[in-house]
Write a structure and sequence with these properties.
This protein is an all-alpha fold and 555 residues long. Helix content is 71%, strand content 0%. Among the domains are: 4-74, Annexin V, domain 1, CATH 1.10.220; 85-161, Annexin (Annexin V, domain 1, Orthogonal Bundle), CATH 1.10.220.10; 163-239, Annexin (Annexin V, domain 1, Orthogonal Bundle), CATH 1.10.220; 276-344, Annexin (Annexin V, domain 1, Orthogonal Bundle); 347-417, Annexin V, domain 1, CATH 1.10.220. The chain is globular and about 80 Å long. This is Annexin.
């Protein structure tokens, strides 16, 4: 029942009054409002509370976070729509020079450009930046900035790219997991219901494969739920047509995915001054006599690269005439044993063991089979095949054929060949592949699945990114939604995993980036999540300690 400007003013006032500050609210509101909305909110704040909003924000915040908030509060972003091509390139170069190119970060340059340039201009700057650096502007912000300032700048970038997608993310975070962030849910549903709720709904469905309507329905109750569902405006069929805004976003997302170069940032690196003989002796000492020194084992194994661990294995046998793996198995137990033994295997041996474990005994762990075969490169799959044959005297393909059936079996057999095409996208062929997939969506179910297999299991991932982008253009639908809607069971899960693998950074081989994605998606750090989840059943804390070392730090 409040006018929009007074509602925004109240939300900001509530965020900064009393003890503590609700930085998430400040970020959401100030990053997403246009100049007119900002001016009206500042005026309403003065009228309602008798104080100056800018002064209150200055008192309650600090550092670069405060500076960017003040810039946004001015409501002075260029809204002319005129773009100077030479300034686009210069801004992209300036952002590069302010961050990735130097030691340390020139935060003022980020604030000046992201806080003042027009939305159209910034979109072109982000594209130019990606061409120059082979990194998205989001990745650079995650690399260079931290804390509330990082979160604010990411929110600004997300709003530049698409305000509806930004609010779709906020709504999802407000309802996922235990409990509901009702203040956020209420604020967004009120503020956007008369502006762009249809586009937010489509973006929500595009990103999370679930309608906003159904998520509200599952997460709230009573008259509160009924009111929110009225504001939402209706349910969306999972594989329905895109609205124009969402179709453009889907197409752009695949385009950005194609431009993104995965930056490998591991948390475990080769140890300096590595001495395999000293490590071998230290491990033997840790397991010799009465009791086991788990801390010594963890400190060595979890802080050496895999190549260094293999040297330790060999040196342990050469110096001591003992099998390190057997000694570790006899001294450790439960999850700690599984983790340490897994670390001591080569990657190919570990993958082979995980494949064996997924198929042994009663039942099959289809999710493990899918995860491994979809995420490994051709070379990794071929090395895994060799390791499996050496360890179990049987080919991995034979094991798959005896343990799975039907089209799912055929898909896994195709993937286990390790013969996926490699190299960049063939644009003409990508158009043809996209048209074939779009046409297959109207065919019989079995014919559709076979056509999807023939393309998704054989084409290179850069090529598939272009195929999936053009699929949006030909069908006005997203490939992930089609898979979720039209397929089922293990076939659906495999094709969906391939689609995710095609779209970095969902699947990456670098734990530092995974940590960043985990924090952004779940609003809790991977480090904190591991600490909580491993408390039960790990009374000694050794298993938890090892996982936290591999995690590499708190975000």
């Amino acid at each position: 029942m409040r006018a929009p400007a007074y509602h925004d003013a109240k939300e900001i006032h509530d965020a900064i009054k009393g003890v503590g500050t609700n930085e998430k609210c400040l970020i959401e509101v100030l990053a997403s409002r246009n100049n007119k909305q900002m001016h009206e909110m500042v005026t309403a704040y003065k009228d309602a509370y008798g104080s100056d909003l800018e002064e209150d924000v200055i008192v309650d915040t600090s550092g670069h976070f405060k500076k960017m908030l003040i810039v946004l509060l001015q409501g002075s972003r260029d809204e002319s729509g005129v773009v100077d091509a030479s300034l686009v390139e210069q801004d992209a170069l300036d952002l590069f020079a302010a961050g990735e190119e130097q030691w340390g970060t020139d935060e003022a340059k980020f604030i000046m450009i992201l806080g003042n340039r027009s939305v159209t201009h910034l979109r072109m700057v982000f594209d130019e930046y990606q061409k120059i650096t082979e990194l998205s502007i989001e990745d650079s912000i995650k690399n260079e900035l931290s804390g509330d300032f990082e979160r604010l700048m990411l929110a600004v970038v997300q709003c530049v790219r698409s305000v509806p997608m930004f609010f779709a993310r906020c709504l999802y975070k407000s309802m996922k997991g235990l409990g509901t962030a009702d203040n956020t849910l209420i604020r967004i549903m009120i503020s956007r219901s008369e502006i762009d709720m249809l586009d937010i709904r489509e973006c929500f469905r595009l990103r999370y494969e679930k309608s906003l309507y159904n998520m509200i329905k599952d997460d709230t109750s009573g008259d509160y739920k009924r009111t929110l569902l009225n504001l939402c405006g209706g349910d969306d069929d999972l594989a329905g047509e895109f609205f124009p805004e969402a179709a453009q976003i889907a197409y752009k997302m695949w385009e950005l995915s194609a431009m993104t170069k995965v930056q490998l940032r591991p948390t475990v690196r080769p140890a300096a001054n590595f001495d395999p003989a000293a490590d071998a002796q230290a491990l033997r000492k840790a397991m010799k006599g009465f009791g086991t020194d788990e801390d010594a084992i963890i400190d060595i194994v979890a802080q050496r690269s895999n190549a260094q661990r293999q040297e330790i294995r060999q040196t342990f046998k050469s110096l001591l005439g003992r099998d390190l793996m057997k000694d570790l198995k006899s001294e450790l137990s439960k999850n700690l044993e599984r983790l340490i033994i897994g670390l001591m295997l080569t990657p190919a041996e570990f993958d082979a063991k995980m494949m064996k474990k997924a198929m042994e005994g009663a039942g099959t762990d289809e999710h493990a089979l899918i995860e491994i075969l979809v995420t490994r490169s051709n070379d990794e799959i071929q090395a895994m095949n060799a390791a499996y044959q050496a360890a179990y005297k049987k080919t991995l393909e034979e094991a798959i054929q005896s343990d799975t059936s039907g089209l799912f079996c055929r898909i896994l057999v195709s993937l286990v060949q390790g013969a996926r095409e490699e190299g960049p996208a063939d644009l003409e062929r990508a158009d043809a592949d996209a048209q074939e997939l779009a046409a297959a969506c109207n065919a019989e179910s079995d014919d559709m699945k076979v056509k999807f297999m023939s393309i998704l299991c054989t084409r290179s991932f850069p090529h598939l990114r272009k195929v999936f982008q053009e699929f949006v253009r030909f069908s006005n639908k997203d490939i992930e939604q089609i898979i979720k809607k039209e397929m089922s069971g293990d076939v659906k899960n495999t094709f969906y995993a391939i689609a995710l693998r095609t779209n970095p950074p969902i699947y990456e081989i670098d734990l530092f980036t995974i940590r960043k994605e985990f924090k952004e998606t779940h609003d809790v750090s991977l480090h904190e999540f591991i600490q909580v989840e491993t408390m039960i059943g790990d009374t000694s804390g050794d298993y938890r300690k090892t996982l936290l070392i591999l995690c590499g730090g708190e975000d």
